[in-house]
UniProtKB/TrEMBL annotation, chains A, B:
GO molecular function annotations of the record: magnesium ion binding; phosphoribosyl-AMP cyclohydrolase activity; phosphoribosyl-ATP diphosphatase activity; zinc ion binding
Record Gene3D superfamilies: Phosphoribosyl-AMP cyclohydrolase (3.10.20.810)
Organism of provenance: Rubripirellula tenax
EC number(s) on file: 3.5.4.19
Name of the protein in question: Phosphoribosyl-AMP cyclohydrolase
UniProt keyword Cytoplasm, yes or no: yes
Binding sites annotated in the UniProt record for Mg(2+): D81, D83, D85
Function (record text): Catalyzes the hydrolysis of the adenine ring of phosphoribosyl-AMP.
Amino acid sequence: MASIPDFSKGQPCEGTSGVLPAIAQDAASGRVLMMAWMDQVAFDETLSTGQAVYFSRSRGRLWRKGETSGHRQRVTEIRIDCDADAILLQVEQVGAACHEGYASCFFRVVGNDGGATIADQRLVDPASVYGKA
Amino acid sequence: MASIPDFSKGQPCEGTSGVLPAIAQDAASGRVLMMAWMDQVAFDETLSTGQAVYFSRSRGRLWRKGETSGHRQRVTEIRIDCDADAILLQVEQVGAACHEGYASCFFRVVGNDGGATIADQRLVDPASVYGKA
């Protein structure tokens, strides 16, 4: 079945018919947790399983979020934007969304001078999750 | 001055040295309003002016958000993600973020069957803002 996101508008990405940006937002706190990519297969699996599945451009394969860390995302709502080329997930996040151990990948604030400062506390030690940092 | 977002990781886009996804979140409500793209020039202007500036891939030029509609975004915080390839803005939105007149571009919810349903109310009539819908 055709899905609403229009993957033909997606960025070219080998092994896919295009990838679209997907934003994961914490359903409880409203915090934006991460931005990743989905292809049609990842989107369909997300929709059918209720667990966030992305397409990892660096690994060139589906990325079932939490498959290594256990930090899964249960999806409570999926929205698409006006142009059908961006996806917004509301998720219940287990553990830390970020592979660096922060609740959100957006843990750095950019100051007026363009420099970045870590503004959050680590939730977990990445070494304890992935074996090494 | 080099900025923290790494535009060399961006998607190729003519007239730029790469574009990165930029998410605008309402600073007051936490609502994700839109996802657009920034190149280095757009990012630098956003940082220096405190008004959201994107790069419009369809128009091939800088897009000073609200330049036609008046629906500007005053930026109260800029964050970058762990990989320095996605940008998160907290904004004070004037009017409607979406060119279709909705507060957020993400006004459609995807159901379990893959179909989309409009879940929000229009804030403004696009015809009154842009001259025609």
